[in-house]
Inverse folding.
């Protein structure tokens, strides 16, 4: 569980019993500044969006630091206040690079693979994407926050469809 305001990750078992804590406030290896999204890989690695440090950190199943990638900026592999990530069934990490208005795709070792989207309100464009899910169906779903919609992409980053619109009715978001 990303315990964001306490700058740590708490690991619980399937019954909700506490197992261990990862991290503390800071910018060193294994430290966090507002961790947000987390994802587990099938081989037991934990990936954490370290929002205010503009990076992703990777830990083994025992909570030991393995690696990190990302730095502040808007080039490929750089991040600006990332907020979430999700691992696809084919082993890629999709990161909501929120303040850069895009999604970045990395392999499980942090190697850059692709960028999805640009700033805007058209199909495949984003305004502060904040949530992401790599679905079991092979599609990528992105919460496009300031456009008040969900966008759907295939695993190669091709735009498929939009769900929702601005409002307070059924199927609308604010």
């Amino acid at each position: 569980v990303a315990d964001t305001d306490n700058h740590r990750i708490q690991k619980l078992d399937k019954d909700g019993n506490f197992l261990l804590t990862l991290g503390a406030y800071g910018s060193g290896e294994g430290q966090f500044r507002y961790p947000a999204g987390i994802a587990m890989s099938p081989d037991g690695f934990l990936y954490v969006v370290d929002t205010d440090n503009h990076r992703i950190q990777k830990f083994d199943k025992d909570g030991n630091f393995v690696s990190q990638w990302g730095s502040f900026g808007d080039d490929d592999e750089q991040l600006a206040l990332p907020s979430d990530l999700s691992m696809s069934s084919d082993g890629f990490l999709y990161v909501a690079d929120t303040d850069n208005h895009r999604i970045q795709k990395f392999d499980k070792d942090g190697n850059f693979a692709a960028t999805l989207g640009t700033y805007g309100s058209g199909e495949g464009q984003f305004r502060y994407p904040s949530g992401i899910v790599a679905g079991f169906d092979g599609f990528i779903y992105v919460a496009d926050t300031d456009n008040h919609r969900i966008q759907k992409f295939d695993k190669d980053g091709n735009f498929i469809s939009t769900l929702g619109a601005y409002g307070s009715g059924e199927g609308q978001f604010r």
Q: What stands out?
A: The chain has a mean pLDDT of 96. The chain is about 0% helix and 45% strand.
